[in-house]
Structure formats: structure tokens, C-alpha cells
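Thread: Glycosidase, structure

OP (GT): Posting the sequence first so everyone is looking at the same thing. Length is 377 residues per the record. Can we get the C-alpha cells written out before standup tomorrow? I want them in the notebook alongside the other entries.
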Amino acid sequence: MPNYPYDQLVLTPHVVDLSRSPLAGHFDAETYVLGAFNPGMTVLPNGNILLMVRVAEALRNPVRDGKVHAIRWERGAYVLDAWPLELADTADPRKFMLHGGGWKVMALTSLSWLLPVEMTPDGLEMVAIHYDKAIAPQGSYQCYGIEDARISRIENRYWMTTCSVSPERHSTTLYTSDNGLDWDFQGIVLDHQNKDMLLFEGLVDGKYWAQTRPLGDLYFAYPPGSEWRPGPSINLATSPDGLHWKPHIEPHIRPHAGTVATARMGGGAPPILTEIGGKRGWLSLWHGVEPKEIVGIYRTYWTLLDEADPTRALATSHTPLLEPDAELTRPLEDMLYLRDVVFTTGVIDAGDRFIIASGEADLACRVTHVPKEAFSE
């Protein structure tokens, strides 16, 4: 990966004041910030950048008295649940699997909420942390937390998709705002296990467009010799109002059979309208995952989609735009619980460069300035 002019961590778990957390005072157990990462990003009316940071708040000592504990929202309060250790597989530090259900059942080692952090226009320095504007669970459909905000500005209104987690469903929820700081909940827009919903920053032929990524435990095989690999892929959907979505009938961005680097993929930053190499279109930043151990290696790739027909790719690159950087997290070595992950969640066109926001190692927020000439097929 080339050296970019600015590529740094701009927010780490140390910055978050948990005395101002939505969870503070609800139960008698110490918590800590497992990660402050995967920030949605947009430009505020005053020109500053907003990072909507996912704060994963975890129990300091989840295992005690022969049980493993998790945090859950219930009727306006936060409570602790306990499961016998013999029923739990705790190999993945982000979650634990529960045996004996006949299918995969899991609980999380943390509960996530969203913290608005205002940055300078270059995204590199902090201006203010808006604890009073934090977004936390408000219903049983998100009792295990709200994750991974993606923000799009469409016709002078801010639209934010989030992933809400509960036993009821693993859904995409939508919030809207007139100023980027005060958000109104609009409800569930995609149902069970459809993650990484990204709204295009603008209408196409009068319609809202979005990238989605349905998940499942079963994928049907492509025929032998196919250029495609079965598994998670990025789909398209359209809507007349941004609330009611219809999946597009043709496939979108799929994993290539010739590489394991994108054996699993999903949307990264909401597509923005820009120009690259003399071609104008929607810039889509997405993640590809190479299998490795439990989590895999996450990298960021790009595709330029046709302005009038986003189903058509104008250009793409099989060389990663961003890769995990161990040097960035070296000062946080004692806090690392996984490695090899860069998860891009926002992009802003800043003239001669793009400002890109990512989560690094599910731990911290990373901002990278990428010159436009770095985009080559």
C-alpha cells in the first residue's frame, strides 16, 4: 500500500468518558471501552466533519461464578444476563456462541452505542464530543446494541443507517437529521441479517439507491469453472422514499473465484458522486475479507459505478486501497484483541483527495487522506 499524506488514528478508546455513557449507573459491574471504531462520517453545516463512532462497551470481568455475562437493554434500563460457562464457546473475543440450540446462537461480549464526535474539516483533530447527542438502544429490536453507522447526505437531509441487534432480528434501522447532530428514528428498513446498507449520496432518476449485503449460513454453488465464488456479496436496492426498499433483480459486486482476498465482502462507505481518471460516477468503497483464523483479513477496495446506471461498473481495482496497519495500533498493543482489520465506513470528496474514515482492528478510528491519483485500475 502506498504512503498517503495523512493516515493516522484520530480517536482511541482512551478518549471516551464512560461516566457519560448511556449505560452508566445501571448495574453494579465495571465496564470499559472494548473499541471506539467504525465511524459513520459526514460534513456538518458548519464545515466540520462528524464521526458517528461505534462505542463497544464491555464488562471488565464477564466471567465470574462459573458463568459468562452479557449486557442487554430492557425497558429503558441495562441489565446483565448470565450463562453457564459449559454452554459457551468464547474463542471469538467479540462474542460467545451458545451450544445446545440446534442452530447457531450467540451473545455479545459488549453492547454498542453511537457517539457523535466533531472533527476539524480535515478530519484529523477533535473539536467536540457530543455526549448529549449519543444514540443508544430504545427498543427490544436493538437490545444488544446499535452498530456501524453509515451517513449519507441526500437533498440537504442526513440519512443514517445502523445495524440493530437483538434476539428478535438482526436488522437495519434508519435515522434522519436536518443538522447532522439531532437524529430522529425512522424505524426498521431492512429485516433479518442484512448488514452494511449504504445509501447513495443522491438520487438516481428520482429514486433512492442503496447497497445491501444479506447474510446467511447457506450459499448455493456457482457452476464449475465460474468466475464467481459463492458467499456474501453486495446487492442493490431502490426506493421511492428512502423507507421502503425493493431489491434489484441483477447481481452487483460479487467475490471473484480467482482470489481468496474477497472470499467475503460487504459495503464500506456510502457511494458518492465524483470523478476519477476522467470518468464521472459513484465511488463505492467496500471491504473484502481473506480467510484467516477466526475473523480473517479485512481490506478496502474500490469500484466506480455509472452515474445514470449504478448497476454498471466503469472501473475497479483488485489492488487494495487500504490495508490493516499494525504500526498504527502499536501504541495500543495492550488493548488489541484482534488484528488484520481495516473496515472503511465513510468517504468525503475534498477536491484533490478523498478523506476516508475507517475502523482499525475493531479498536480505534482511522482517517486517511488518499490523493485522487492513487485510484488506478
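GT: Both are above now. Quick notes for whoever picks this up: Helices lie at 326-329. The chain has one domain: 6-374.
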